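Continuing the batch. This is chain 6 of the set; chains 1 through 5 are on the previous pages. Same settings as before, nothing changed between runs. Recording input and output for traceability.
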Amino acid sequence: MKKILLFVLGAALCACTSKNPDDIVVNVEVENMTVSNVGLLIDRSTSFTIPLDKHGKGRLVITGLGNIYPRVIYGQTAKMAFIGRGEEVTLRFDGRKFKDGFRVEGRNVEANEYLQTMTLPEFNAYDLPWEEFYAEINRLADDAVHLMKARKLEQTCPDFAKVEEARLRYLYAQTMVMYPMGHQLMGGDPDYRPGREVYDAVGKMVVEREDLADVDVYRDFIHFAIPLVLEGQGREFGDPYTRTVATMRYVADNFTDEKVKQTMLRLLAIEYMQNNGRIAEHSECLHHRPADAARIQGGVRKPRPDGARAPFARFHGDGPGGKELYARRFQGQIPLYRHVGDMVCPARPNCRISANW
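Output for chain 6:
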């Protein structure tokens, strides 16, 4: 597996050697080391590498993040963990048995044991009428929360229990954002347009949660829900740039929590520039965070001189056994959009992966 890159997202996020009260400290202890580093994947644009010494030990101090659910990556295997704001944890495992012996030691031991054993049912029944679809995702979210509470984590890990309940509900709420396109494709109704009930249900979930600001499920929902809310207000978007600018303006004008606001603005700007090229084209996107422009540019892929996209530059994912797969492997096939939590929605009709996709 490629070495995980470290993106430094402005002054608000860095890997340091000293510790402040809200800093996250990650210690790693590996027996029978087979790989010389451990990766922490926070979201699509934020990741860290922890180098291991000859004894299999490493340490990372992260400033600027609150509660996180990092994917801990060792070799070709990933495990989910929870690390609370200001928590110091030790990731301990045997390098030859990472999949089965991974352990997180800290103040949320029971929470991490729960994450290693929990599974969620997959749900992608976009052919259902909205009323049935909405009732089903709420039932699944209620069931997931009930199972979590049955572990009595509210007593042993109260901060985690609060965050996890919200994460589970946002995890299933993501399917609401995908419903309009999914219903067009799987419901056999290419002319389907969401009714007011869809826009209202999505809009009710677009709320500021400072304790979720660094949780990828929450950030993904906010990212993709806002354009849908704006569409419900009559807005139309002809291209990704217009959609991104409108989303950033909505965040800047309507969000009052500085942590959530700045986190979302930074995420939106970085993801747009990573996928769409030159920073000079995006000055309007950075209007609310001008000080981050130079820093963000350092983590953005440089465009080709002729302005074309490099073949297969960004599209890749994990296949069976954790093996990395790239777009060239699927040239000419119909892609699926795979969302967090293994919820799947087909891509646009007649969309096929090409050499420069």
